[in-house]
Prior knowledge:
Elements: H1 2-39, H2 45-72, H3 77-113, H4 123-141, H5 145-152, H6 156-169, H7 178-222
Helix pairs in contact: 1-2, 1-3, 1-4, 2-3, 3-7, 4-5, 4-6, 4-7, 5-7, 6-7
Amino acid sequence: MAFQAVKAQTAKGTINNLLAAMGVKVDEAVGSAISALLHTDSHVVAGVLESSVAIQELERTLDQTVFSALEGCYLEAAEIKRLTSAVAIGKDLSRLGKLAANLGRKVSEVGRHHEHEDFSRLQPLAIAVSHLCRQTLRSLVRLDPVLARNAAHGGASVDAYRDYVLRGLSRPESQARDEQDLHLIFASRCLEQLADNAIHLAENLVIFLEGQDERDDSQSMAS
Length: 223
């Protein structure tokens, strides 16, 4: 049993490190994609795509580590739940990376055909989404359940700015810019999806981190 406990503890550290590494990569990808959008800068898109690939590789390594931990030793129900939450968090992070890549590809596509596309109307929404994503990802890197809980309830400002964007598109003067409006709608939808997934990730992080704290407390009492 002592060997199994050491192995489980080692797996826990490896999983935490992999999730933190994924969080850093996702933070880079989301930040770069949003920056590319606001500045219509397709030059940074290659970096976003590279980060997305790296995130997929880290997810595969995470899945393998969790599978090995489940297969290799007897685990209590709480530990199995924590490992299952880790897999869910990995999928959430992977999805955020893919959404950032999709946004980057759209910026690159628009930039090839419309050199002076104006996405400035999205700036308040983009800033709100960037803040929400960063708060969520920092809660992961720092293993901070309080920050995760705050992020899980941080969607109100994103909704308000999204509504602001859509109201602007409904004005008569926007009718002469139908194609640009479509690009704005697509980009705002990408930003909204980033926010939705960041909130879902934060909710999973609360379960994961609070479960980890409870397990650490019970182990301290047992010792």
